[in-house]
Amino acid sequence: MMGRAGRPQFDTTGVAVILVAENKKNFYRKFLYQPFPVESCLTDDRRREHLNAEIAMGTIRSVNDAVGYLGWTYYARRVKQNPSYYGAHSGGEEDVNRHFQDIVQESMTELQNHGCVVLDCQQTGLDHDNWGIDATALGVVACDYYLNYRTPLQMRSGIRKLRRQIAQMLQQLDNSNANNLDESDSDAVNEADGQKNRKIDLCTRRPDDGTWSMPIEIESYAVAEMLHILSSTHEFDEVPVRHNEEHLNYDLSKTLPWGADANGARSKSINNHNRGRSQDDIMDVMADPHTKCFLLIQARLFKAKLPISDYVNDTKMVIEQVPRLLAAMQQVAVGDSTAGGSFDVTYIFQKVRQVLETKTMVDKNPLNLLPCMPNDGVSLLRNAKGGGILSLLELRTMNRADAMTTLKKIMGGHKRAQEAISFLHGLPLLSIQDVLVKCNMDKSTGQSTGVLSFTLAVEANGNSARGRNDGNKLSGSIDSGIGLFILLGTPMDRCLLSQKNLYTNSSGRGRTSNDKNKNNQRTF
Q1: 3-state SS class at 368
Q2: Can you say whether the dihedral through the CA atoms of 346, 347, 351, 357 is positive or negative?
Q3: How many helices (H) and strands (E) does the chain have?
Q4: What sign has the CA pseudo-torsion 166, 169, 171, 174?
Q5: Which of 65, 95, 189, 223 could staple 90 via S-S, CB 3.0–4.6 A?
Q6: How does DSSP classify residue 346?
Q7: How high is the pLDDT of residue 348?
Q8: What pLDDT digit, counting tens, does each position of 397-445 carry?
Q9: SS3 (DSSP) at 487
Q10: Hey, is 367 helix, strand or coil?
């Protein structure tokens, strides 16, 4: 504004007059002619996150260590020069040290309430000024993945809730199947056989390829709920919700299958889901940054049209955070994998990654992933001669010439069929062979430890490789670069025993990434 004083081409000088209250005159005079001091940003949440990171790395092991750490920061320098700004009584050495002890105590209490640290009064005596501090698994996750210190506990609570929901839904399905079995077989089985058959595996066999997996309805809801948990984290507190965008969010939610939260994945319509809510309550939900985040992720998955161009940039900002947060959630889940149902949750993490990568929901037939597949291509494959083709696995294992002939008829051309065949034979064929379980008895404790070993055979692009998994060692060589995620769990209580990542590069050399908290051994 001051730069526009005077008339261009007429005046050589200009006068700018600033009208302020009398008591603010000295402030604005100093503001005009002297720069403001740069204050420290190491306050509140940022200070707690920094302290948590140093604790997780082992730099800080006690309250006194934390006070000493703050003494070497720019924050300490500014507290001495501007104590009232930071809440210290004065800039004297004693008041500054007391201020540091107070804020460290407050920070440690807050970190402990959110499960990031544990205060050990026995480690260094009863003097609370020098209590020992140990990092927890949640604190390490917050440090490793640069998370808000409140996020890991929030993730664990959401994962535990999802695990209970999956278990309840599977149990309801189990009871329903058992009742149907009792009704149909009541005249054909005796009482003993009836009791034996009551226990039904909580997995179902897919009708298209015969593999075992979670029921589609439960799997779809679990994927939606997992993404909703991720969207609710504190990392998305700053997603912008501009003026009147709550109305755009509401209109967008009506076009998306899950709506404003994952419960829409279980309800038949958004209108039924919002029934009973006042319009003000609905608008409050739509004005929440986390609701907008969940809607943007849905819009990307279901290829929905975004209302304005600003949503495109917002979507990019959200999607960039998803892989990091998903990896952090999985590490939190693995650290809490002793309870039943942990296998199902870990399995859902991989499904979420597949959904985000392919933009195809779990209830869609994988045959739709074939390039150049027409809209009615899946139904045409199912009705093909010779019993029909129900899955990618069946098409992949067919003779190449027969598959080419079938796809040419459906896709209407050799070039399209060739592209689909190239994609199809880029998929690896997996098989587990030479499964062996060993039991080792510990004479001192009387416990038996089971060790599972097997051979994983992988065929890709017509080449085969065999990787041997023996305890914690897994190796293999595959000509084409692929990544495999191997889960091992129990069939009854659905506990996760182990997980392994197998990566291969273009040179054909394979390597594994083991979960440092798990191995292939389980005591029973």
Answers
A1: helix
A2: positive
A3: 20, 12
A4: negative
A5: 95
A6: H
A7: 92
A8: 888 888 888 888 888 888 888 888 888 888 888 888 888 888 888 888 8
A9: strand
A10: helix
More confident residue, 399 or 182: 399
* Cα 228 to Cα 296: distance, rounded to the nearest angstrom: 11
| 501 strand-pairing partners | 485, 513
Q: What's the rounded Cα separation, in Å, for the pair 64 and 58?
A: 14
Longest distance between any two alpha carbons in the chain, whole Å: 109
- Cα 334 from Cα 489, distance rounded (Å): 12
What are the Cα distances from residue 417, in Å, to 370, 376, 380, 429, 461? 10, 15, 14, 20, 17
Nearest C-alpha neighbor of 234 from the set 281, 283, 293, 285: 293
CA 390, CA 384: separation in Å to the nearest integer?
10
CA atoms within 13 A on the CB side of 38: 1
Q: Rounded CA gap, 497 and 224, in Å?
A: 25
| Residue labelled with tokens 């990544």 | 483
Q: Specify the DSSP class assigned to residue 62.
A: B
Closest to 451 measured CA to CA, from 523, 502, 499 = 523
Fill in the DSSP letter of residue 39: P
Which residue is it, tokens 């008339």?
7
Strand (E) or helix (H) holding 204: strand 204-205
Kindly provide the residue ranges of all beta strands, DSSP E only, lying in 307-445, ordered along the sequence.
429-441
CA distance 281 to 179: 41
- The share of the chain scoring above pLDDT 70, in percent, equals 78
Residues found in the chain: 524
- CA geometry: angle 367, 372, 376, nearest 5 deg: 60
Backbone angles phi, psi at 135, to 5 degrees: -80, 145
Contact call for residues 165 and 142 (beta carbons, < 8 A): no
Q: Cβ of 322: how many Cβ atoms within 10 Å?
A: 19
pLDDT band at 474 (very low <50, low <70, confident <90, very high): very low
Beta-carbon contacts of residue 332 (< 8 Å; ≥ 6 apart): 137, 138, 141, 152, 155, 156, 159
Q: Is the dihedral of CA 355, 357, 359, 360 positive or negative?
A: negative
What φ, ψ does residue 413 adopt, rounded to 5°?
Answer: 170, 150
Query: Cβ atoms within 10 A of the Cβ of 397, count?
Result: 11
Q: How many whole angstroms separate alpha carbon 112 and alpha carbon 323?
A: 27
* Alpha helical stretches, state H, 336-399: 342-358, 377-382, 392-396
Residue-wise pLDDT tens digits, 218-275: 889 999 999 999 999 999 999 999 999 999 999 999 999 898 887 766 654 444 555 5
Half-sphere CA count of 289, side-chain side, radius 13 A: 14
In sequence order, which residues have a C-beta less than 8 Å from that of residue 191 and are 6 or more positions away?
none
Backbone region of residue 50 per phi and psi (left: phi > 0; alpha: psi in -120 to 50; beta: other values)? alpha
